[in-house]
Amino acid sequence: MRMFRTYRLYLVCTACLLAMPIWAFAHVKWFSDYSFAERPLALDEILTPLFGILFAASTLGVAGVVVLDERLIRLPAYASFTSWLSRFENRSDLFLRVAVGSVLLLSWQSGSMLVPEIPSLHAIIDLAQLVIALLILANRLTAYAGYGLFALYGLAFWHYGALHLLDYAYLLGAGYYLVAMGSPRKKMRASALPGLYASVGFSLCWVALEKLFYPQWGLEILQERPFLTLGFEPGFFLTSAAFVEFTLGFLLIVCLVQRPLALAVTGLFMTTTLVFGKLEFIGHAIVHAALIVFILKGRGDIFRTPITFFYHLWQRIAFAIVSFVALYILMLTGYSQMSTTTYLLASQQQQTEQQGHMGHVMPATSVMWSETEKPVLLLDVSRDSAGGWNVHLSVDGFTFVPEQAGRQAVAGEGHAHLYVDDRKVARMYSTWHYLDTLTPGTHEVRVVLNTNDHQLYVYDGRPLEARCTVVVE
User: Which of 85, 82, 81, 78 is closest to 3 using CA atoms?
Assistant: First the structure.
């Protein structure tokens, strides 16, 4: 009877995990028109009652997983299952090597750097990625491939900034894994697994916070794919997805229910591929491989996981709760400071570029954008009879073509970006858009025209935009 209750608990927890929003694992930056020049939310805007409820629920969930982990390791059936997986442990390194090599080859071929959304800085970097991918083929040269991965990550970190590159901290874990596995020292090789756990878990936590500070990026995706919300309100869904992702990242860091967790997460990653296509799979190939390593190797044999330093169940629960709360507070404040600093720097750079007449300037041969006929944009925001606000943009000679978003720029067509108080809230693919709510006070609504490939339309050195002030009582 006791075993039946334990199995039932495991099945319920697994079902809850699988029922979580699969979109929590999609990388927002790969599918939205993001910009660090957009104002991130401040902490007081994030710390809402919904945040508090989800934070408390996540903390209790972590405590529950500690109990589940305690019971799982005592099950004979689970011990047999993990023993069977351990038979394939020696093959796990091959998965990671193949994944790293494949991602580098695809990056070399596509002109990107390490991941699909980061442009390569130079042709030499493209060649370096090819060389590193070839080094992985030889066992004796794998460590050098790891050092090469460190170098590429360092260049990207220096050029694109910490806020952006910490999304991909798992690349450091993969590089260290390759270096450590090529070491003749046993303890050095054993340290590869904890490093991989920590880096993948940290990446999940960091990307989760992005959904809280830049909700507009995620809401763009949900606007284009409303079925992803599973019927929930988009804002609630987005915040819930952030907590799901952060909690799972924390569980990987402290190595709780690591094999079932890795199985569930890799299954969810495969599911997101059905929604977002090949780009999602290619970009997360190294994470996929790391999860396979976790499935086959479990916790490892030499180094103890943090939770195992405590022998009593109540001590483990207390440690997990305190660690989760501390990590969340530390990363939340760190992300807030870094995002604010990045926003100020990016805004200043964008303003300098606009003053320097940078952007997409229409050719003089185009009549509607000629010097004699400046395009006229009119913006009107009115209250909807059923609640919310209707945004209407009137512009002559411009065509909205949502099906061409992200493709080559064509004169006179594209889409628009909608801002409320300098925070982008949506893309506009037609002259009308509906805003759910506006908080009491005075708000500035701004609409900016963009080309298909998301460049600003500029006339006489200034972005083509329309503004409107809305007073909400």
Answer: 78
